[in-house]
Amino acid sequence: MKGNPITTSMIPSIFTLANLLFGFLALILVIEQQYTLAAAMIVLSVLMDSLDGKVARRLSVSSDFGKELDSLSDLVSFGVAPAILTYQAILYPQPDYVRYIGLGIAAVFALCGAVRLARFNMLNITTYFVGVPITFAGGFMALLMFFRNMLPWYIYLGSMLVLACLMVSRIKVAKLGK
Amino acid sequence: MKGNPITTSMIPSIFTLANLLFGFLALILVIEQQYTLAAAMIVLSVLMDSLDGKVARRLSVSSDFGKELDSLSDLVSFGVAPAILTYQAILYPQPDYVRYIGLGIAAVFALCGAVRLARFNMLNITTYFVGVPITFAGGFMALLMFFRNMLPWYIYLGSMLVLACLMVSRIKVAKLGK
């Protein structure tokens, strides 16, 4: 492993880093108030996240490094970015009390995402998920953003809270696309 | 391990989650253009990050879960938050070409931070660091923010680039405070 050159085993990590890059750009776009584009970046992250696993399995190069990098990227793209996007686009413009509760729930969403990732990595289970995957939770919040002219704010607040709880729950979720 | 209740082993994770929370708040404060406060949040994250390890060693409850959660929090607080803070506060107001290069280098800083964390976790070395720790890199960028009325923009751009390279370098760095 020492001094590892760029090899086949690095290829899935390129998709994982693309996942992180799109998550990073989503945050930049939130600052620029480009909320639809920010949500689109998170959707691109979901795509990259599904590709890295597929490519790793196809090339038979799943690695601990890749798994670690995947978790790290997932927290940014599907935990932090959707929480900040939802807070800023939907909850920040609401009355003060909604804004403060919204900030709290957005933080809880990101924290629960981190707990889920840390716990799932530790369990080392590969056949099913324990708790709703953060990719689903973050992707769902990004998709909701495309309907923000139709849906009231409490749908966003409620979804974040429910998804946060489901991420740290002990519910077994079947893995798709294996 | 199953159904783990809140036990002594959970105490260090409270500090780790506080680290992540301050990183999350730093991002929110960047959006609100409160750059000094955002930098202060990152400094608080550094403090929390140094406490979680100390507490875990004192209580002899170092765990894989804690290590995972620590890496996840570190990427947000010391990779993503300082990069976005530096880009937004210092580089965004510059001429177009600085802004675009700045965005690229900020993204590289965050990505190199993730690679460093994934690689270091995989190596499982506990006596020294390989590459400059992300906590140092992110903490340094946060401290620089307090001098932003005195320093030119290229100090920030250069520091981010150098620190990004040092994080993924193979330099052995002594661990302090063991």
TrEMBL record, chains A, B:
Matches recorded under Gene3D superfamilies: 1.20.120.1760
UniProt main location, coarse: membrane
Any GO CC annotation of this UniProt entry: membrane
Pfam families in UniProt: CDP-OH_P_transf
Catalytic reaction list: a CDP-1,2-diacyl-sn-glycerol + L-serine = a 1,2-diacyl-sn-glycero-3-phospho-L-serine + CMP + H(+)
Topology relative to the membrane: Multi-pass membrane protein
Subcellular location(s) per record: Endomembrane system
EC code: 2.7.8.8
Membrane spanning stretches: 12-29, 72-91, 97-118, 125-147, 153-173
UniProt keyword terms in alphabetical order: Lipid biosynthesis, Lipid metabolism, Membrane, Phospholipid biosynthesis, Phospholipid metabolism, Transferase, Transmembrane, Transmembrane helix
UniProt-listed InterPro entries: CDP-alcohol_PTase-I (IPR050324), CDP-diaglyc--ser_O-PTrfase (IPR004533), CDP-OH_P_trans (IPR000462), CDP-OH_PTrfase_TM_dom (IPR043130), CDP_ALCOHOL_P_TRANSF_CS (IPR048254)
One GO process term, biological-process aspect: phospholipid biosynthetic process
GO MF annotations in UniProt: CDP-diacylglycerol-serine O-phosphatidyltransferase activity
PANTHER family the record matches: CDP-DIACYLGLYCEROL--GLYCEROL-3-PHOSPHATE 3-PHOSPHATIDYLTRANSFERASE-RELATED, CDP-DIACYLGLYCEROL--SERINE O-PHOSPHATIDYLTRANSFERASE
Family classification: Belongs to the CDP-alcohol phosphatidyltransferase class-I family.
Name of protein: CDP-diacylglycerol--serine O-phosphatidyltransferase
Organism annotation: Desulfosporosinus meridiei (strain ATCC BAA-275 / DSM 13257 / KCTC 12902 / NCIMB 13706 / S10)
